[in-house]
Amino acid sequence: MNYPPRQSLFEHLLSQNPIWRLSKKAFSLNRFLVLCFSLGLLYSFSAQARDEILAPSGEPFSYAWLKGHAKFLAEQAYQSQQAELPESLQALDWDEYQQIQYNRESALWREDELAFRTELFHLGLYFEKPVQVYELDEGVVTRIEYSPSMFDYGKSEIDSEELPPDLGFAGFRMQFQNDWKRDFISFLGASYFRAVGEEMQYGLSARGLAVDTALPKPEEFPMFTHFWLQKPQKGSQSVTVFALLDSPSVTGAYRFEIKPGDVLMTRVDAAIYPRAEIKRLGIAPLTSMYMVGENSRRANWDWRPEIHDSDGLFMHTGSDEWIWRPLINPRELRFNSFSDENPKGFGLMQRDRDFDHYQDDGVFYDLRPSLWIEPLNDWGKGAVQLVEIPTLDETFDNIVAFWNPEQTVKAGQELLYSYKMYWGSKPPTQAKLARVVDTFTGIGGVIGKKRTYYSKRFVIDFSGGRLSMLAQNAEVEAVIKRSDGRVEITSARPQDAIDGYRMMFDLVPSDNSTKPIDLRAYLAVNGKPISETWVYQWTPPPQDERELHNAGHLK
């Protein structure tokens, strides 16, 4: 259990005791020894009481209490949840860890004829920090005690009799009445969690909080240390989970209201209490993978045409602009920040849902869910920030997106954020605007003439919205803005295959520059946008690569 430091608790107890008001000079040595003995007992009782606060059997629980407790913890020094796992659990590889399965007969609420059940994850492998899990039933909290009998250890060669009786859990997952075998949401590792829509296919992950992502120092990963699972009422189609978050820099109280469906909806209320100043705080962080796609083929040695959980960052700004930013697998870490005030939404999408584009019948990238974040209160000024990390392996999550508040985050603050999360293949969109369905890139220039490696061709396909309603003689304009270089060979023409329009242009950097170039483009009729805004960042290749390609030595 994560107790406050002894000195802080000592001072806290004194401050709550009338003896604190007495002058130290009033004590004789005997009285001082008696006081120390009394305080020792108080400390012992308080430690026990603190354990009961986190598991107050027979006592009421509320989100207001959880926020107060998180605030109290933020005023204490951080103490790690790291535990010394038995060597047999530390030595597990991935396949061996997967052998440890929860016994479905032990599932929480299995005998209650409810629409939900809960199963627990075993500690081991990467999951070394135990979390405490409680059932919450009409305000009464009951701690879920670990027992080896809850698990089938399969071929992992784990001797369950040698495991500590108070081992704890790594996390949990839930099933809904439409499918008792597959989970619809799981919480496992740090503050990570994942959910599914109607496709019942996991993909990208969410986190409770991100701290100092993509800074020149190690990232901090806050952890959900305690969970309270609200027992649903009979007939209820939603379930509520409370969580306590803790890390060296911050604590937090979270409430998740989860409703499965074709698009799974989760309402999140988060109260965040910094222990220290945080340079880059990430609200509603999303984590995904992008290795190979139609516009980014740097790691294109696999037989599958595309490999990614998400293919773009989608944003609905406070000024009512809809923005699509295709993802890439960069040569080096890339960080983009999109300033905004009171954003209306953002998310990582998997728009391309054509199996033929992936040809993966094992992990089904075409079925991976998108995740959309919809703020429910004013988030003020800040930015949606996107981090793209180079990867040569699809098992590495290399994409992160989150909201970063503009105001400096300092110790002692209370930061309140509420938002909805939509998981599935049908996230919110703007029906009146055409949307980007494809982004292709290649070498610019004209076929049959000498083509240079520093000229980049961009092809963006738009579909939907009001494009199908345009007159045949409508003058559709490609509006393109760039931060550097010049744009050539621009066109916007009908694309019957997608019942939409294709924008095409070449970008030539100025003076053979290699600095990143920011692009914005959209379709317009009579000067008014008829599509969402496509944004991109392209970094021209180094001079030596251009020379090799132009000499015919590099494809």
SSE inventory with pairings:
Blueprint: H1 6-15, H2 29-54, H3 63-74, H4 87-90, H5 94-98, E1 101-102, E2 116-121, E3 132-137, E4 140-143, E5 151-152, E6 171-176, E7 179-188, E8 192-195, E9 205-207, E10 209-211, E11 223-230, E12 239-246, E13 250-259, E14 264-274, E15 281-288, E16 290-292, E17 307-308, E18 312-316, E19 322-326, E20 334-341, E21 345-349, E22 370-375, E23 381-388, E24 399-405, E25 415-424, E26 435-443, E27 456-463, E28 476-482, E29 486-495, E30 500-508, E31 517-525, E32 528-529, E33 533-538, H6 543-550
Parallel strand pairs: 3-11, 19-33
Antiparallel strand pairs: 1-5, 2-6, 3-4, 6-7, 7-8, 8-9, 9-15, 10-15, 11-12, 12-13, 13-14, 14-25, 15-24, 16-17, 18-19, 18-21, 20-23, 21-22, 22-25, 23-24, 26-27, 27-30, 28-31, 29-30, 31-32, 31-33
Radius of gyration, in Å, reads: 27 Å
Beta strands, count = 33
Low-confidence stretches: 1-53
Oligomer: single chain
CATH fold-level label of the largest domain: Beta-galactosidase, Chain A, domain 5
Structural write-up:
This protein has 555 residues and is mainly beta. Helices cover 12% and strands 38% of the residues. The strands form 5 sheets. The protein has a 15-stranded mixed beta sheet that branches. Strands 2, 6, 7, 8, 9, 10, 15, 20, 23 and 24 form a 10-stranded antiparallel beta sheet that branches. It has a 4-stranded antiparallel beta sheet with strand order 26-27-30-29, with no helix packed on it. Helix 1 crosses helix 2. The N terminus is likely disordered.
List the keywords.
single chain; 12% helix; disordered N terminus; Beta-galactosidase, Chain A, domain 5; 15-stranded mixed β-sheet; Immunoglobulin-like; mainly beta; elongated; 38% strand
